[in-house]
Design a protein that fits this description.
Layout: E1 52-53, H1 57-60, E2 69-70, E3 78-85, E4 89-90, E5 93-94, H2 100-118, H3 122-126, E6 130-135, H4 139-143, E7 148-155, H5 179-182, E8 184-186, E9 197-199, E10 206-213, H6 222-228, H7 230-240, E11 250-252, H8 256-260, E12 265-271, H9 273-278
Antiparallel strand pairs: 1-2, 1-3, 3-7, 4-5, 6-7, 8-9, 8-10, 10-12, 11-12
Length: 279
């Protein structure tokens, strides 16, 4: 998912020209008018913690953001939960704000801070649809002196949309009942072609019920990743089933691309019997 913010700063540079008198007129040349050097534009305001914005899905995936701040009591899609300063000097050299080195700093920092803001653990967070996105100044803002990063939390509502929420998301997962609002559910079994990830408060048939951490720093390969969660997820599915002799379960393991992006775990799935009973 992303990074961004800012009031886009457009710096207009004034051009001045000076001319002396025509030397052929014989008149006394007058002193050329003096002009003050252009004043450097101030950096744009830094973002503040707990500010809310209305981001689109595409905006949440962008590295910079110019969306205006809105009141958190009004419908919004993103809330800032952490703000900090970038380390743009590496080994005595200034690096650009859009360099891989600087962007990696933020990509590692923001996800680590989200669970504490939401009042939960990493495992519960991984079973929810709440995600971290992050933003840095644009090159123009950086040239003007901006040096911040911003971490926002968003609720993913589907494959390409964000949910609108009201109020602050701080400590949103501290209450176990909040899983029903922000939990990760599916429209079908995870191996079904019709499967789509949705918030559990929307119509759904399956629910993510447990995280399977995979060992090691390197991707184990699809075969090992697939095998790693089979027994764990079968046990988890049996535990939540109404009939321990007749039940379904699913396991979703990370791809090599997802592993490289930081998802070093899989998820166990089971039919949501409460939803089935209500239907």
């Amino acid at each position: 998912m992303s990074r961004l913010l800012g009031l886009l700063l457009v710096v207009a540079l004034g051009l001045t020209s000076c001319s002396g008198d025509d030397p052929g007129t014989g008149t006394t040349p007058s002193a050329a008018p003096t002009t003050a050097p252009p004043t450097a534009a101030p950096p744009p305001p830094e973002p503040k913690r707990l500010e809310c914005r209305r981001l689109t899905f595409d905006e949440a995936l962008a590295p910079t953001d110019s969306d205006r701040i809105v009141g958190c009591r009004t419908p919004h899609t993103g809330q800032t939960y952490a703000v900090g300063q970038l380390r743009t000097v590496v080994d005595g050299h200034l690096v650009a704000v859009d360099s891989a080195r600087v962007q990696e700093q933020v990509a590692q920092t923001c996800p680590r801070k989200l669970a504490a803001f939401l009042g939960t653990t990493d495992e519960v967070l991984r079973l929810s649809m709440l995600r971290a996105v992050w933003f840095t100044p644009s090159l123009e803002q950086s040239d003007a002196g901006a040096n911040w990063y911003r971490c926002d939390v968003v609720a993913v509502a589907g494959d390409d949309r964000l949910a609108r929420v009201r109020g602050s998301l701080e400590q949103a997962l501290a209450d176990a009942g909040a899983v029903d609002a922000y939990g990760m559910c599916g429209t079908a079994a995870p191996d079904d072609p019709a499967f789509e990830r949705v918030l559990c408060r929307e119509d759904h048939a399956w629910r993510a019920i447990q995280v399977v951490d995979l060992p090691g720093r390197d991707y184990p390969g699809e075969k090992r990743a697939r095998a790693a969660g089979q027994a764990t997820c079968e046990d988890a599915g049996r535990e939540v089933a109404e009939d321990a002799l007749d039940y379904e379960w699913g396991y979703e393991w990370p791809t090599a691309e997802q592993w490289a992006a930081g998802q070093t775990y899989g998820r166990c799935w089971a039919p949501d019997t409460a939803t089935t009973d209500e239907a």
